[in-house]
Each structure stands twice: as structure tokens, then as C-alpha cells.
């Protein structure tokens, strides 16, 4: 429901690359840091503890560390979450929760 919402689809087309993996499928592989690895190895690298988990990488393919683990996000706060990451507010010590709350009030 989140990713199929027209407003979210539009935002994701503007400078985002989405990758969906299923770490429980041991037959699938991808390239990470120059090595071909199983999806489960990718989940381990990013300390994924449950599904779904949303992980953002910056332009240098480094994980964007947020204040909280991002699991399922409804479509309403997902747009502000994308803006928060895209505009690098995490580097400015702006609280993610406060940013999303303030954005949804507008």
C-alpha cells in the first residue's frame, strides 16, 4: 500500500534507487562491496532483525544511520521520511520523529 501510493511512486522516481531483497531465499544473490553474496549475507551486514526493514544508503553506498530501525511505514509518514533522508537532515541533528510529525501537520 505504501509503495503503490501515487504520491510515493512519484517521490521514488525523483533520485531514488529501490532494491528489494528476500533474505529467506537462499538461491538469490547480489553484488555488495564488489563481492557476489546471498541476500541473507546482505541482511546480516546491515543487522536486519525482522522483516520488512527499510535501509537507506547515501550516495557513497554507506548506510544512513537513523535514530530507529525502520520497518513498515504507512504512506502518510513515508513521504516525509524520504525527504528527511534525501535532504540529509540526519546530518543536521534534526530528530526524525519531530521532522515527520511537523511535516504531517502542514
Gist?
The protein is mainly alpha-helical and 106 residues long. It is built from four helices and two strands.
Secondary-structure topology with pairs:
Blueprint: H1 6-12, E1 29-32, E2 35-38, H2 39-45, H3 75-86, H4 96-105
Antiparallel strand pairs: 1-2
Helix pairs in contact: 1-3, 3-4
Folded structure, characterized:
The structure is a single chain. With 106 residues, the chain is mainly α. The protein is 34% helix and 8% strand. It is built from four helices and two strands; from the N terminus they run H-E-E-H-H-H. It has helices at residues 6-12, 39-45, 75-86, 96-105; strands at 29-32, 35-38. It has a two-stranded antiparallel sheet. Helix 1 runs parallel beside helix 3 and helix 3 (75-86) packs across helix 4 (96-105). The longest helix is centred in the C-terminal third of the chain and has 12 residues, at 75-86. The protein is globular. It starts with 5 loop residues before the first helix and ends with a helix.
Amino acid at each position: 500500500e505504501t509503495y503503490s501510493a501515487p504520491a510515493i511512486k512519484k517521490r521514488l522516481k525523483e533520485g531514488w534507487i529501490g532494491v528489494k531483497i528476500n533474505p529467506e531465499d537462499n538461491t538469490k544473490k547480489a553484488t555488495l562491496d564488489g563481492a557476489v553474496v546471498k541476500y541473507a549475507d546482505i541482511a546480516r551486514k546491515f543487522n536486519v532483525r525482522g522483516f520488512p526493514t527499510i535501509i537507506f544508503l547515501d550516495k557513497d553506498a554507506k548506510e544512513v544511520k537513523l535514530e530507529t530501525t525502520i520497518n513498515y511505514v504507512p504512506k502518510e509518514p513515508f513521504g516525509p521520511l524520504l525527504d528527511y533522508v534525501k535532504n540529509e537532515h540526519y546530518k543536521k541533528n534534526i530528530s526524525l520523529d519531530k521532522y515527520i510529525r511537523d511535516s504531517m501537520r502542514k
